[in-house]
Amino acid sequence: MRTKAWHTFLFIFLAVFMVFSVIATVSIGATELPVSEVYGVLLDKLFHGGEQISAGVFETSHYKIIWQIRLPRTLFAMCVGAGLAIAGAAMQALVLNPIADPYVLGVSSGASAGAAIALLAPIAIMEGQRQTTAFAFIGALGAAFIVYFLAKRAGGGKLQPVTLLLAGTAVNAVMSAVTSYLVFRARSPEGIAAVYNWQMGAIAAAQWKTLTIPAVIVVIGSIVFTMMGSRFNMMMMGDEDAAAMGLRVRLFRSVMFIGVSVVVASLVSITGIIGFVGLVVPHVVRLFARTSDNRIIMPMSTLFGASYIMWADAYARSVHGAAELPLGIVTAFIGAPFFMFLMIKNGYGGSGK
Q1: For 240, left (φ over 0), alpha (ψ -120 to 50), or beta?
Q2: For residue 89, which of 279, 352, 347 has the smallest C-alpha distance?
Q3: What confidence score (pLDDT) does residue 214 get?
Q4: Structure pTM?
Q5: What is Dmax (Cα atoms) for the chain?
Q6: Which of 86, 129, 232, 245 supports an S-S bond with 93, CB 3.0-4.6 Å?
Q7: How is domain 81-105+153-164+193-346 classified at the CATH fold level?
Q8: Is residue 350 predicted with pLDDT exceeding 70?
Q9: How confident is the prediction for the chain on average, in pLDDT?
């Protein structure tokens, strides 16, 4: 199959699979529901205003499970997967490192520190969950901008890939230390448990009211990153070559850095730390697409990442019955071995690939 035809087929397959995954994963959980019933409820609610539901065609309890609990959670999982995956692809191009990850920016550790402050410090500004989300978002963006500032200062006013990675490593260490110190000083076992649960990552808190803002940010971010695919390709050629081709390297890297930070912060401030998505998904897409062209990788990473997290979350909420497995554990168990396989297969670090 010719390359262009293969990419078209793969893109259509991923898009169809993502739509199928929405319906299929909504049916999975402690209470198993037929896929046909899920499809019927969604079709009736979206196109007929809930006429069949009002007429008693579907059980009220099943309707509430599908529409009020699982669908917003599934759609949020879709946003999380899509956002983290495309942010990972963007970061790998920005820092010229195939094993880069959005969390290099310090976003995850900053969000963790912010959440720890909200959960453990005697501060009561907003209602519990909203305060945790707000503090985590502020911590995530704050850490990202500290990384940005340090990297520019260390690079003599330029945002260089190496200084960005080093600054991210340093800020991650400091923010992790802040979280550990807060846990050490805490006197509330419930608060300490809440911090540990938040750090393991989950989408259980997803509701219709928490979905809108992250969804809008992820959609805008995905469109922008995809439209900038050719410029990301220039960045992968090196700063000098990109500049010779007319790209304003410093401005582009700075703007995209901010964009990645906002996308990731909007997600992890609600979900907690969900690792290996932005690291592994772009590699899987490159493996099947057989290209490194970011005009192809960006949209495909979005689609595959969305489906991946929907299925991972479905597994997390069903494997132990009513006791839900944290999503971050699932993605780590899947992502870490696959990443080690990629490292051995491609020889990262040993052969300069």
Answers
A1: alpha
A2: 279
A3: 93
A4: 0.90
A5: 69
A6: 232
A7: ABC transporter involved in vitamin B12 uptake, BtuC (1.10.3470)
A8: no
A9: 88
Residue at 100: amino acid letter: A
pLDDT in tens, 41-95: 888 888 877 777 777 777 888 888 999 999 999 999 999 999 999 999 999 999 8
Tokens (6 digits) for 60: 């009220």
Please give the pLDDT value at position 127.
67
Q: Where are the domains of the chain?
A: 23-68, 81-105+153-164+193-346
Taking the C-alpha atoms of residue 87 and residue 127, their distance in angstroms, rounded to an integer, is: 30
- DSSP letters, 62-95, are HHIIIIIIIHHHHHHHHHHHHHHHHHHHHHHHHT
> Around 335, how many Cα atoms within 13 Å sit in the side-chain half-sphere?
24
Q: Which residues of 50-67 are buried (b: 16+ CB within 10 A; e: fewer)?
A: eebbeeeebeeebbebbb
Question: Which ranges of the chain does DSSP label H, i.e. alpha helix?
Answer: 3-26, 35-47, 51-54, 60-63, 71-94, 107-120, 128-154, 161-185, 189-200, 208-227, 229-235, 239-244, 249-271, 277-289, 294-318, 327-346
Q: Which residue has the tokens 């893109």?
A: 11
Distances, alpha carbon 78 to alpha carbons 81, 108, 247, in Å: 5, 19, 33
Whether pLDDT at 210 is above 60: yes
Helix (H, G, I), strand (E, B) or coil at 263: helix
